[in-house]
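Protein modeling request. Please complete all fields; requests missing the sequence field cannot be processed.
Requester role: graduate student
Desired output: 3D structure, C-alpha cell encoding
Chains: 1
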Amino acid sequence: MSGSSKTRPSLPTRWYLDADHYARELEAIWYRDWVAVGRNEQISEPGDYFVARVGTQRIVITRNKDGALRAFHNTCRHRGSTLCIEPRGRFKNGRIICPYHTWTYDLDGQLVATPYRVESDDFRLDNYPLYDVAIDSWGGFVFICLDVQPKHTLEEFLGTEVDELEGWPLTDMMVAHEDSVDLACNWKIFWENYNECYHCPRIHPELCKVVPTYKQGVFAEYQLSGGDRENADRRSEPGVAEGMTTWTIDGQLALPDIPGLDKDKKNKGMWFATFLGSMFVVGHPQYVRSVRVSPIDPERTRLTISWLLLPGIVESHPQELEHMMSLARLVIAQDGRACEFNQQGLHCRRHDSGVLVPQEDGVARVHDWVRTRLEG
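Delivered output (376 residues):
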C-alpha cells in the first residue's frame, strides 16, 4: 500500500471469528513460516528441554549430546501418546521416554528401546524415529518451522530486518524476566494494534509523554503528509522526548548503556525490528525487549514478553528491574484491553468489515501480508 490519503476496507470480520478460516491460517502461515518459540538459554545443556506451542501443535525443543538444537513433535511413534507432560525439564541419561508404554528415544529422536514389547520379525527400531522439526536460531532466539520441507532458511525468512538490531549483542544477552499474557482476541488484532498509533493519544497517555510524536495519532511524520514508509528514512522516525533516554515511565534508567551501540539508534531510545507473525524485538540503550505472539484459538492469543540484559546486570542493579519493565507492562495491559474490546465488537451481525484510514498504512501492510500468505 502506498502512502496515499485514501481509505481502504479491512479484512472480512469472519476472518477473526470463524474456526475454519483460523485453521486455514494455521496451515498457510503458522505451519509454513519460521516461528520464534524461545531463547537458547532455556536449553543451555544437552538434554534440557521445553515444550513450545504453535497453533494446535506441541513441539519438544532440546539439544543433542553434541549441543546441537533439535526439535520434535511431542508425540510418540507407537500410538501417538504425548511424550513430555511437563512444560520444561531435563531428559535423564539423554533419553526421551514415553510415559505410556516406555518407548525410548535418544536426543536425536532415534528409537533405541521398546521395553516389554513382544518380538516380531517385521519390527525395526530405525523405522520409528520421532517426527523431527526444522530448528535454527538467530540472536539467541530459537525458531522452528513445521513445514516438512521449509521453503526458506531462517536467514532468508528473517531477511534484512535483522540489520535493524545490528550493534545489540543479542546472542550474549540473557532473559532477566519474562511475562506471559493471554488476550481474548484473534492474533491479527494484536498485530494490527502494534502497527498503528492512531489509538495512542487515547489509550497510551503515559507513552505519549515519552514519545511526543505519538500524541498526533501517528508513528512517524510521513504519515501526516500521506507519504510512503517504503521511501521514508527509518532513522528519521521519532524517538523519546528531549531530556529522556529510554523507554521507561520517566524516560530514565540507572542501568549502564550497552557498549558499542550505533549513536543514532541509541539516541532515539528505541529501535524496532518486526518478524511477522511471531515476534517483534525492540532495542533500547540499556536493554532489549521482545514480544512473541502465539495463536491459541480464533479468539485467544498468548503474548510472551521478555526483557534481556547482558550477564551480570541483574545482579548488580536488582533495584532497577521493576522500573525497566513498568512502562512496557502498562502499554501491554492498555493494548490488551483495547484488543479485547475490538474482538468483542466484531460479533456484531451487521459488521462485515471495517475501514482503514491513511495513518493505518501499517495495518494495511499486515492485511496484505495475510492475504498473500493465504494465496500461497
